[in-house]
Write a structure and sequence with these properties.
Elements (H helix, E strand, L loop, with lengths): L1 H21 L6 H15 L2 H9 L5 E7 L8 E8 L4 E9 L6 E4 L12 E3 H7 L9 E4 L2 E4 L2
Antiparallel strand pairs: 1-2, 2-3, 3-4, 4-5, 6-7
């Protein structure tokens, strides 16, 4: 009876293996080059250089998270601490595909629309040292507004 169902088990294992490895397949030529270029742009930011240096012993990582989508038409790069199987992001950068302009995705911005959490590097540099930046907030007309 076991032999009767053995071929189903083999097929199931092969399908499961294909599903698991699909997301881990190596990047093809140009795609890998693009991801390396995007990581390089983020790694060259003075704040990221400092973060990588200050957290050297904690295994900092500049991680290419994903490419542009219809919902979020930017490359998304996360900068954080890695412990092999876990990653704790501290910063989220978005890069416009055509111009390579860098933006910051403010994960503390309270908004149902992810596009409302995207600010320029200049805004991020200005607001990140203000006391309200670490609290829940939003942006109105380019200004940081604390949530009540």
């Amino acid at each position: 009876m076991i032999r009767k169902y053995a071929h189903f088990a083999v097929i199931f294992i092969l399908i499961l293996s294909a599903i698991i490895t699909k997301g881990n397949s190596p990047r093809v030529g140009g795609q890998q080059d693009s991801e390396d270029k995007i990581r390089g742009i983020v790694s060259a930011l003075p704040e990221v250089k400092k973060y990588l240096k200050d957290n050297k012993e904690l295994h900092p990582l500049v991680y290419f998270f994903k490419g542009p989508t219809t919902d979020l038409p930017y490359y998304w790069v996360k900068v954080g601490i890695s412990s092999g199987d876990k990653f704790w992001p501290s910063h989220h950068f978005l890069i416009q595909p055509k111009t390579y302009k860098v933006f910051y995705r403010d994960m503390m911005a309270n908004s149902m629309d992810p596009k409302n959490s995207i600010i320029t590097l200049e805004q991020w540099r200005k607001y990140r040292s203000t006391p309200g930046y670490q609290k829940m907030h939003t942006y109105k007309n380019g200004k940081l507004v604390l949530m009540q």
